[in-house]
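Q: What would this complex look like in 3D?
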Amino acid sequence: MAQRLEAFATFGAYGKSGVWRTLYSPEWVDATDQFADWCIGAGLAVNRDSVGNVWGRLEGSEGGKSIVSGSHIDTVTPGGRYDGALGTIGALIAIEALAEQSGKPKRTLEAVALCEEESSRFRANFWGSRAIIGKIAPEVPDQIVGFDGITISDAMREVGLDPELCYQARRRDIDAFIELHIEQGPVLEAADCSVALVTGIAGLRGITITLEGVANHAGAFPMQQRKDPVAGFAEIVSGVIGIAKEMGSPAVTTIGRVNVEPNLATIIPGKVEFTIDARHADSDELKCMITRQDELMNEVAARLGLSLSAHVTSQHEACVSDPELMVELECAAGTAKVNPIKMVSGAAHDTQQISKIARTAMIFVRSQGGRSHTPEEFSSLDDIVDGIKVLAGTLHRLAY
Amino acid sequence: MAQRLEAFATFGAYGKSGVWRTLYSPEWVDATDQFADWCIGAGLAVNRDSVGNVWGRLEGSEGGKSIVSGSHIDTVTPGGRYDGALGTIGALIAIEALAEQSGKPKRTLEAVALCEEESSRFRANFWGSRAIIGKIAPEVPDQIVGFDGITISDAMREVGLDPELCYQARRRDIDAFIELHIEQGPVLEAADCSVALVTGIAGLRGITITLEGVANHAGAFPMQQRKDPVAGFAEIVSGVIGIAKEMGSPAVTTIGRVNVEPNLATIIPGKVEFTIDARHADSDELKCMITRQDELMNEVAARLGLSLSAHVTSQHEACVSDPELMVELECAAGTAKVNPIKMVSGAAHDTQQISKIARTAMIFVRSQGGRSHTPEEFSSLDDIVDGIKVLAGTLHRLAY
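A: Here is my prediction, written as structure tokens for the whole assembly.
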């Protein structure tokens, strides 16, 4: 496992421990070739679908729908060696070990390397998994322009894919999907545990708020006559964060992007644009949080004489892991003598997409310092082995 | 007056009513030439000093120190027709009228066009007035690089000035300086008055604060484990604004510039850098406000586990108008049948610099909507005439 993670990290190596691997780049192509080679070496039949997901298939004797595991192989820019790669290589290693130790399964097992989970090159996250569930409209590849100015269509053609055939990636024969992934947070470290079984993935609403007041001279305008959007912004930030804290874990709310105009020290700003990312694993609780936050924002804007407009930029339903799969994961953990905790994923994952067409669950491996999306992200080999044991055990219970 | 303001606005005309006139630019040179021509036409002796201030002098029969009025002729980018230009042309018109109506004065009268009050081309505000009070060190013209990448030294040479001679602009023979200026705020409009006599100019402290936490995944990090500098920023903004409001007018506090890193919607920011501009016309009250704001910031940072560093970027002492000059202004206003209010200037002015070597006072003219630093700034001709009447009357009382 360690060698494979290291070898895989050479495709798009960035500095000492970083990886910079964006969709349809030469290093991404090399990584897919490597994954395909490893699949072939493990005796799996390789299939590259029409958007670039790579599938390694171990045919079951009884046919039927597949049991699938995998994750993504694109990274943030720059990211580390574990986010995505761990679950992709982990799935392959688990199936390879099962094939060696237990031979041909009854049910078909597949390992998959998914593409563009991160939106690193194109504002098109979950590109691979959305293709699998049939959620990419025909016009989309021409419409989405990457940060390098190239459309997805052109980037696909450059690597030999036909953007008109995206629809062919649709799968209707997946029974269960189990994703192994690093936690990307500090919960496992705080609990002193190597592995978590993920009970669900938080739903989220991302919005961009524009708060407008009147720009004026910082000295000449008395406080009482100001319409200062930064004052309103501050009240809103404290308020929406306060609501998330009051609701308690797993509610989270983040103000990640803030742009002020004209952004000069001696001018009362005229406009603040900012994002609010609100998440909760329970759909009803998420709705409740969002409603309270929206009410608070409108109250602040009205009271301070500011105009407020909101634009929803992303919305994902909360996703609950399949109860039967959770039982299998727990049994497998028990057999492997791993003592996992159960937790909710605050981060979004491909699993959330695939849950629309299959039973899903996830396994988390502890992240050192809770860090991810950085070359410094790290998970120990011991922890990784625990995660793969639980994954392999579960696949064995489901497929043999 | 209206014609001259209009003619003057053609030097650096920007759109319909805007002006974009930066120090030592060709349009600035044209404006100084125009001012000098008008001075000559009014019978004044013209002197251009070593930094580019232009002086029009009406010699008094008794000699002695001068009675001076004027303002700056550079603009923000873009600014309007009134900020600075009003006080420059207003001084000339007042002295021209006095010379016509009352002949040679006892005391010498001067009208002056000052340069780079705004920091529009160089981070060197009050350049002209600082030269007059002898506050420009010899090495400075070489050190300050403009927003266009050119040093003040090179820009001076381009317009025929010798940067090594800045010290020659020093004046030791100014008795009184009276500046006519647009209010740049909404106070006169709210009071339904054309003119204000300015009792003092607010002192200010400008600081840049850097608040550092730890950047992390917006979904995967529970609220309790975050070190979110935006949360701290919000508390600080509400706190420092609250202190200014509580202290009451003329205390003001503005957060004008905010930069967040990495500034992505799904990442808890690691760093927020922002400015705080705090002003008060009473030095002791300003100190008190700053002390309370600093304590509040440190408390918030410590409580949220954030590191805070502060860098003072500007500091001006509050400046109180000369009591005797204020009496002359009031008498002149009474004679002219103008009913001015008295108010403090929250905005900084050249007067603040010149107060270090002379008795000073200011006259404000109402700004429509309180607006300035924009092509839309406007003051009516009636209001302007009221302001010039008070100025001319005061100069008459002082010089004849």
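A: To summarize the key features: The CA atoms of residues 132 and 169 of chain B lie 5 Å apart. Chain B touches chain A through 64 residues (CB under 8 Å).
Q: Very helpful, thank you.
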